[in-house]
Design goal:
Chain lengths: 122, 334, 334, 122
């Protein structure tokens, strides 16, 4: 199977899907390689990510990376979240085929864009 | 629901091939009894395959499948029926044109058509079609994978594909896959016999499926010409979502479908065929091929109709495109 | 007695392939469960084939048989073991030479060997042999006809044979013949496990056969190197008569043998291989290949030894060459 | 099967194999195409072939054509025997593959050679 069982589980039961009504940080990015999209909404209080939600359009890796990302960053400080790497996301979805690793890149970039807003606002 | 990718092997086909996997194991090139028994079985199968497409036995080159059959060098090739959306092409018209060109002096202009998807799903008659070459693959016809044939009109000369043996009248070397060829022949005979009933069955099930989808799911588009279309394929685009996620969701609930064609999957580019219909990337990426077989039942269809709306709904809930569309619609409604 | 032409399919092999002819019918290119089940089966088989020749799984290209495997374009090709007389060639020495030439700058010089007859009849180790490509055919290994493989050393780049699919790492297109590939894999596993026992068995039966022939029939010549020879082949020239008549006589009594190789029979020219041994036309035309299999028994051999002398005698009585020789011998005796 | 059952029967049970001790006509020919050989011995009395025997070396068609020829000509007058054609021999062995029809030609030629001796002697 090109995709791991972990990935397929995220597809069948996405974690933290949707948008936060009280989000204070929202970012949406389109993957230039393929048009996949990821939208993140975060509630950040006192430098800590209290809640994260995602919406995604595209291939299973993009959907799963969105789902996994919200799980990884909820509860982290902004600084800790900035250290979440592409490799970590790929590992968390149980691996990705080489030609799909840019799905994890999209997740990192969308997160950084959202956090960038924070840094700018600070 | 993925009978376009491959079909279950018919029980009667397995029974017919079994003797050639057990006691009848001769090499058709051997002069002795066992060899000649195998040769006779191969020739019987060749006759059945020829009969299915109204050809002569010596116009049939048996080989390893549709892909090998497509690997000849010809000038004009047209798919008889497309494997993604099932649209039937006007081969007969093209055939007339090619014959006229040939009469006008273009002596070596041949018309090849890929009949892999069409075989067993519509009448295929090489005389009516006027094609010079036609590719066939047994595993789309309820026989095993790894065997097929190329129809070569008697006037056409081809360079042999596998050099090193004198089999298939010098047109394709290699010891014949006897058991597989027998299976193919049996499948061809059954397909000829049961063709009308199979077509009626698949058409009825597809109508049930498409009516159910229309009723239960919004924002769907059925791709392909509704008239000139193979009876077993329903290609549907679901707006706002991408096909592969839907495929995996369905698979986890026991429903096998395809995005694009199995032949080209692994690439997972937006389907160029759907895009050529003018559908745009989103609809092309959201397209799924459901394909029905002779053994599909009403219950199978009803199960898909139960599982599919939920799967589509779940993915749409995740989709920023869908959320945006809802918001926009809400605004227009106001 | 014609196991060089093809071998009976092993019962265990048929059992292993049956599920892939019945419920497990997925297309390995399909992303869903059925497809992935087929993919896994293909990969398991690939590992078994690799293990048999001490290669890595990704060095194995599965295809339709030995002939297709032989259809690559390479510079040097040597039969590992000849299919008519069973002589084993010094591939390892040639391998060393080719590697030296390559080290000396001839970068694209590859050594190909046809291992079709050798497989399952002697240890085949691509590292020891030093070959870059090796052809295999399943039906010489107690699996069905129509499947085989080409070993391609990792450093070698080949142009793909069948264009139009991405299978076999772009090296060979076409939907995989899953059931056949599973059969091949099982046969490879069994061959690896039972190789020593099979070799000992075939060697013993051949000794029994050759002793019997020597004892009962005059004017026979055993062709091929008695040392460096596959254990299952006995190639015999019977003076004064021609092989095909003998073949048909034996066939009518239920004994299957070959003149020359099945691959090239139909031509029935005096065997160039036997002629190359310096035997002349008469001995070349009088040569018969007896080939033993793992399932041949003592009783089979004894039956052949009962039937063969009479068949040879009958043809010799017809032969002007024999009458002449008798007359000449009578004169010399006087 | 490349060969008919009639042909195979002649191979298994050749008719009139051997040489006549009291032959008055003997001819032996080698097929230039392939080296096959046919030897005929005839006893001719009063312009009629009383007995015919053959020896043959070569492929099954050559053996069968020799066998069939002796059957066809025994009892015929010399003139009748001269009319036995290649086609007739081929039919009598149940047909021959195209590339083997020269076996029947060898039979006709050897017969004509033997009969030629008669004509010369007359
Ligand atoms: C239209 C068409 N042509 C050719 C092929 C390839 O045939 P095979 O799988 O026998 O190689 C397929 C599918 O596999 C097909 O759908
Ligand atoms: C040495 C050798 N190579 C190749 C082949 C051809 O392999 P296949 O029959 O699978 O095409 C044969 C016999 O058939 C053979 O004996
Ligand atoms: S297709 Fe590019 S990440 Fe999904
Ligand atoms: S081989 Fe020429 S006639 Fe027999």
């Amino acid at each position: 199977m090109p995709y791991s069982n972990i990935l397929k589980d995220h597809l069948a039961r996405p974690r933290n899907a949707g948008e936060l009504a009280d989000a204070n940080r929202v970012a949406e990015q389109t993957n230039p390689a393929c048009g996949d999209r990821l939208k993140l909404s975060l509630r950040v209080r006192g430098g800590r990510i209290e809640a994260a939600r995602f919406l995604a359009y595209g291939c299973p890796p993009t959907l799963a990376c969105g789902s996994v990302l919200t799980e990884l960053i909820e509860g982290l400080t902004v600084d800790e979240a900035l250290r979440v790497s592409r490799a970590e996301i790929i590992a968390a979805v149980g691996g990705l085929p080489a030609r799909k690793t840019h799905a994890a890149a999209l997740a990192v970039e969308t997160l950084h864009q959202a956090i960038g807003q924070i840094h700018r606002q600070v | 629901m993925d009978n376009s990718a491959t079909t279950p092997v018919d029980r009667r086909v397995v029974e017919a091939m079994m003797p050639y996997l057990t006691e009848k194991f001769g090499n058709p090139s051997s002069v002795h009894f066992y060899g000649q028994e195998a040769r006779a079985a191969v020739d019987r199968a060749r006759r059945e395959v020829a009969a299915l497409i109204n050809a002569r036995p010596n116009e049939i080159v048996l080989l390893s499948g549709g892909t090998e059959a497509n690997n000849d060098t010809v000038l004009i090739t047209v798919m008889l029926a497309n494997n993604e959306i099932g649209t039937v092409q006007p081969i007969a018209e093209i055939g007339t044109l090619v014959r006229e060109l040939r009469a006008g002096g273009r002596k070596y202009l041949w018309l090849h058509t890929d009949g892999v998807q069409a075989l067993g799903r519509m009448p295929v008659n090489v005389e009516t079609l006027g094609c010079d070459l036609l590719s066939m693959s047994a595993h789309k016809l309820h026989a095993p994978q790894g065997v097929g044939a190329l129809y070569v009109r008697r006037s056409v000369r081809l360079a042999p594909q596998n050099i090193g043996g004198h089999q298939e009248r010098e047109r394709r070397g290699g010891t014949e896959a006897v058991s597989m060829i027998v299976a193919f022949g049996t499948a061809a005979a059954l397909a000829r016999e049961e063709l009308d009933a199979r077509i009626a069955h698949m058409r009825a099930l597809r109508a049930r499926f498409e009516a159910g989808v229309t009723e239960r799911i919004s924002d769907v588009i059925f791709n392909g010409d509704t008239e000139r279309r193979l009876p077993h394929i329903s290609n549907v685009s679901f707006r706002f979502i991408e096909g592969e996620g839907l495929l995996i969701n369905l698979d986890m609930q026991g429903v096998a479908v395809s995005t694009g064609s199995a032949c080209s999957s692994g690439s997972l580019e937006p389907s160029p065929v759907i895009r050529a219909l003018g559908r745009g990337d989103e609809l092309a990426r959201g397209s799924i091929r459901f394909s029905i077989g002779k053994d599909t039942t009403d219950e199978d269809i009803d199960y898909v109709l139960e599982v599919l709306p939920r799967a589509v709904e779940n993915l749409r809930r995740l989709s920023p495109l869908y959320q945006q569309a809802i918001a926009e619609r809400a605004c227009t409604a106001v």
